[in-house]
Give the backbone structure.
Amino acid sequence: MLDREIAWRIFASEFNNTNIIHTAGGEQAPHYIITPTGARCNRLFAVGVITEVENIGHENNELWRARIADPTGAFTIYAGQYQTFSSVFFTGIKIPSFVAVVGKARIYEPGDGRIYTSIRPEELNVVDEYSRDQWILETAKSTLKRIDAVRLALNSNLHEGEIIEHLQSNNIQKELAIGISIAITQYNELEQYLSELEQVVYDAVRTVLVEKEDNVAAEPKQEEIIDSKEYVANIMEMLDTGKGAQYSDIVDAVRKVNITTKQLESIIKELMSEGRCYEPKIGVLRTVH
């Protein structure tokens, strides 16, 4: 029995900018899309707000189309008549709702130069806002790590086979290394795109900060202080573009959720004592992986 393909975490913005299909092996081998950051994706996991559901089928042939929005764009979902679970789900779903989907990545080329991406769902579930926010943060981490890996490949000036070995020697998983080796030969002006995507990721993380602003009490309870520590650790990692996160940027980010400078300093000291971050130079912080 074949192992099930991993479900990648990819923002809608990157997914919708994907235009490469790759097949490894013979006719029965699975098809992959190769995203600009090298995700060699057969399946993906996405969470967002369902904003639209429509049965666009004809007569007795059901074909459901839905859109699930994340902070960077929207995923298009298509489910046919043989996916009865999708029909039941879409018939009963309330719009808007937070929804998680795991499904197959698809690209459609009508032949006029345009390319459309979509997901064929395997699983659909209603989730809560917390789950959506956690997906945004985890997807941001994954995307930034892929961006760093692509830059490592671009700066190496090596050829395809050498790039795979080079990335693996730098602790990049083989699956991603293969995808990156393909992406850097197929996507034009990739460095510019990576910079734009990096900004998209930071903007997505900021939406979580803004949404939490009205939900954080001025005097947090003990359990909220514990959450704040993890929150600061996540922000520190998000703001680290490879040379560390500026302390001033961390202050600005956590101020939106009512974490004071005094509380921040206490949290950073605690993270340092746990060996989870360090200060390579004054005013700069880096997390330890």
Summary: Residues 36 and 183 are 6 Å apart (CA to CA). The chain is about 45% helix and 25% strand.
